[in-house]
Structure formats: C-alpha cells, structure tokens
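Students often ask why we bother encoding 3D structure as a string. The short answer is that it lets us treat folding as translation between two languages. Here is a chain of 500 residues written in the first language.
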Amino acid sequence: VVVGLALLVQLSWYLLFLNRLANYSIVVNGFFRVLSVIILLYLIRKDENSAYKIAWMILIMMIPLLGGILYVMIGNKKPGKKLAAKMAVVKDSMTDALKQNEDVLQEIEEQDARVAGNIRYIGNYGPYPAWKNTTVEYFPVGEKMFDAMLKDLQAAKHYIYLEYFIIEEGIMWNTILDILEEKVKEGVDVRVMYDDVGCIFNLPSHYADFLRKKGIKCIVFNRYIPIFSTVFNNRDHRKILVIDGDVAFTGGINFADEYINEKQRFGYWKDNGVRITGKAVYSMTQMFLQMWNAFALEKDKLDYEKFCLEDVRPLAKEERGIVLPYSDHPLDSEFVGESVYINLINSAQKYIYFFTPYLIIDNEVVTALILAAKRGVDVRIITPGIPDKKMIFLVTQSYYPQLVEGGVQIFQYRPGFVHAKCAVCDDKIATVGTINLDYRSLYLHFENGLFLYNNDTVMDIKKDILDTLEDCNRITPEMCKKNMFFLLLQGILRIFAPLL
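And here it is in the second language, the structure alphabet:
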C-alpha cells in the first residue's frame, strides 16, 4: 500500500506539473505535442512487439499533451543500464563444457530435423547445450516435489544453491530453512537468491541480513525502491535449486505454503516441477552461478573453474532422450521463451497441450495456435478456474472467443488455480519451467525452462494434462458471449495488456 501510494503521488505530481507548465507556455505546450508526434513516429519504425507499440500509440493519442513525455519516463522495457552492465560482465563466462556436442546434435538431426533446428536455436540463444544421459522425474503437484526436495537437501555434502521468485515464511520455507541451518553447521556452502518484488509482501525488509547471520549467503535481486521507473519491471522469475552439482529442481513451484496446499488461497493449487540428475545438472549449476556472480559482492563471487562437468555424479544406467536446460532474459531482443513455444506449435503434427496460469499473448502466438488447429492439430490449453488476479483473468478470458472460434480448445480448471507452465507435443517433445504465456514472462522477466526430447518424462507430462482435463470445464462459443459492457471492459484491458 505504501509503495503503491508513493508511486501514485509521484506520477500525479509529474503529470500535474507538466500540465500546468504546458498551459503556462504556448512554446512548452507545442514542445510536448511535437514530442508526442516524434514518439509516435519512433514507435512505428521501432523493432518492438507490435502489441506493445499499439498500446503506447493509443495512450499517446488519447493524451497527446503528456503521452510522449510519459513514454520517455516509463516506456522503455529494457533493464536499467546498471542492471544490464552487471549481467554483461558474466555474459561470456560460459565454460568450454557448455558448448554443444555436435555429435549429439547430428544424432538428433537424423531422427527429426525440425527438433534439431529447435535445439540448435536454444543452444545458440538459451544458451546451453543438449545433454544425453540425464534422468528427469516429473512431479504433478507441489506436495510430491517438496518431499523429494527435503530428502535431497538432507543428503547435501558440499553446496546448496537456491534462486527463487517467491519465498514466504511458513511450513514449506521454515522446514527448508531448518535444514539449511543444519547444513551450514556441517560446512555446506548455502546460498540463497530471491526476488525483492516477489517477496515484498512475504518477508521482512531485512530478511537477507537475518539469513546471513545464520551463515547463509544471500542476495536480493533488483531491490525495489518506490521511484516511478521501469527499472523495477524486470524481475527474477526463475526457480532453481542445485545440490552438490548432482541434483537440480525447477518448475513453477516457489517456496510458499499455497504451492504445497498447506494454505488455501484460490482453491486447490495445481503446479508442477521436475527433478533432474546427470549431465544436464551442470547447465543448471552454471545458470545459477552466472546470475549469482552478476550481483554478488567480490568476496562472495564463485569461481567457475571449481565446478567441473567431470564432477557430476554419473548415472547408474544409460538414459534415453535429450534434456536441454535453457534461460531467457530481457537484456536483448531475442525472446527465447516465446520462440520455444512458437517453434513447438509450428512443428506440432498431432497435438500440443499447454498448462498456463495466464493467457496474455501477442498476435504471433495467437496466429500460430489457430493455424495449428486449422491444419488439424489437437490444440488444448488449460487455464485456472479460480484466478489469483481478477483483472488479469479478465484479460486472459478476452482471448477465448478468437481462439475458440479458430479451433483451439480452452479448458478452465474447476478445483482452483493452475500455476504450472509447460507444453507437450506429439508424444516426443515437452518443455517445463517458469515461463507463463503472458507478456511479463515472455518479454520482461528472467526465466528458465527445460526442453525434453524422446525422454520418458514427456509422457508423464502428457498423462498429467489428460488427467487434469477430467477436472476442467471446456470453454464453448456460447460461454464466450458477454454483454456489451463486459466486452468493452475486456477490450480496454486487452489493448493495454502489454503495459500491465
């Protein structure tokens, strides 16, 4: 509330000041209007997502006097220079062990050229290689993944690295924290990185100091200061737990009690996650190291050379399939998370199924989904039945009529909220991780995912989606028909969805 009021006061003061200044001087008034026209022309030619450009162009035309200056103040989606500079330092720190094995890629090429192309793209921009001999255990709910996490945390001998968007005091986190404290006493290196906005209402303001006093090294990502700026738009939405370089977890599950259904907020909380062992864990370790070293104090930075691929514990038996961890960030114009989804949709031949908590997508994704459905692909998307954010849910529902009319099947989960983020395609490809089908995940946040090919887990994900469909209501064309006021409200929200 305090942060929201502070931002509102700042914005109101800015706009009032500029408006009075413009009214006081014809020259200033003309300058602001010319600036708005220049910004409009700039947006037209800018290499930017079209939905984002249209939203700003409409806003500028609605308030031509102040629209241009408003865009200058908050229109930039890119991270602040300071944030980008920190990440640039570690951008080229990848070890030789993280270069793609061409023999593996050639093997995939012989099996399926389209999959090989997708893997090559992810390897170039993800930017991590595809691995063989990696096991993946799939968890359809947070409760089961939590049990597995506790067992692995208790077995840690060397280090425990956590990077999470949300940490909240409660049964889940306090149980983990007790183990972390014990492990610190045993000499295990424990490091925690959490997002400040993700935890702003969940943790005390000086919680990092609280953890440091327990011997846990801690970084708070992109601390939020109540200043009207888009610098704080870019959040660390990743979920990574690495233990001794031998085991890693990721998925949609944060450390808060609703994720294991110890607390009911929006009905039953449906989430998912994966546990991996084998060579691909090395990529997950490096993924954490690069983010940690970008923001850690010099004395707390980690030496990449101390983490060797050869140190990863070998599997007891050879595993089939390919596992490719990947990441996405807002530091460039390459939207890896969205591209992986679009490539999957475009390559689907029989079916493609999705879990997503939000469905706020641009025209490229909408077009890909509808074209897939029209060429005979079975396209299904599961969204929540009970939303966590009502306004965002209205925007999600605004996409239903166009998609349903185009042949895409939309389902709402009756028991509660779906927080899982994954896709499965043609019994051979899947991706699971932290990336929602919404503008924030696809364009603004730091994210991570796991691409699977010919891995047994692909069918586990498919089974989970098919089982979940039994508890869903299918959206029909009749259900998409709303009164004029409701449609108008959704239309307005839809226009400004990229700015939300």
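Translate back mentally: The first strand starts at residue 134 and ends at 139. Keep this in mind for the problem set.
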